[in-house]
Amino acid sequence: MSEPNANAIPSAKSRSTVKTTTSLAMLTAVAYVVMVLSKALPQVSGFLQLDLKDTIICIGGFVFGPLAAATISVVVAVIEMFTVSDTGIIGLIMNMLATCAFCCTASFVYKKMHTKKGAVIGLTLGVIVLTVVMLLWNYLITPIYMHMDRAVVAAMLPTVFLPFNLVKGGLNMALILLLYKPVVTALRKARLVPESRAPQQSSRKMSGGFLLFSLALLATFVVLTLVLMGIL
């Protein structure tokens, strides 16, 4: 009678770890490239930069959990500081706070409610948390970084920082809703992500309605982005 293969389970776990690490590394690289490309976008109010890397990082968080989103956020922010950023340690802190506030909140909710409804709720809460956190930290940090009077920054909170963060979060939310399924499908075909264990929601009517909702959301926030940039 043959003995059980004691190395079978560790080997499977090892392969799973390698696949997860590969996927996270790939998402980190893509997030960095998207961040660099985002710097070509016009700034808002002369110093606020729209950044779409949160789309990639949050997709990673939806697949692998909020800890993965936090890890990618920190890695990308650190690499950005040493390569293309001129904002130093303050920019690093603000980047990590903004991305983690949005991506970790959305990923945590989606982990608990692994449905399209859960994704929408999680992303909406992510936008709210992002906005609140950045209003607080802009009030605390911007006077130091920009050498501005705190009263001036306080006046900018409802007119500059509030709409900027709402639009930034909303734009990333719309892109995530549109891109999550095709990105994850590609990762599953490459066997880098396990098959979903969530209940199937493949109704054509539901999928069509969800797509229209996502496109309408994207169009709305693209227009608002152009308004903030002074293009419209």
Brief sketch in words of this structure:
The protein has 232 residues and is mainly α.
Say how many strands there are.
0
Can you give the helix content as a percent range? over 70%
| CATH class identity | Mainly Alpha
Q: Which residues sit in consecutive blocks of at least 5 with pLDDT less than 50?
A: none
What class, by secondary structure content?
Answer: mainly alpha
**Rg (C-alpha, Å):** 20 Å
Strand proportion? under 5%
CATH architecture: Orthogonal Bundle
Instruction: Give the end-to-end Cα distance, rounded to a whole number of Å.
Output: 77 Å
Q: What name is given to the CATH topology? A: Arp2/3 complex 21 kDa subunit ARPC3
Instruction: Supply the number of structural domains.
Output: 1
- Strand and helix order: HHHHHHH
Biggest sheet, in brief? Answer: none
- The general outline is globular
DSSP helical segment count: 7
Give the mean pLDDT.
Answer: 88
Structure description:
The chain is mostly helical and 232 residues long. It has a single domain, classed as Arp2/3 complex 21 kDa subunit ARPC3, CATH 1.10.1760. 78% of the residues lie in helices and 0% in strands. It has helices spanning 8-38, 53-64, 66-83, 88-112, 116-146, 150-189, 204-228. It is globular.
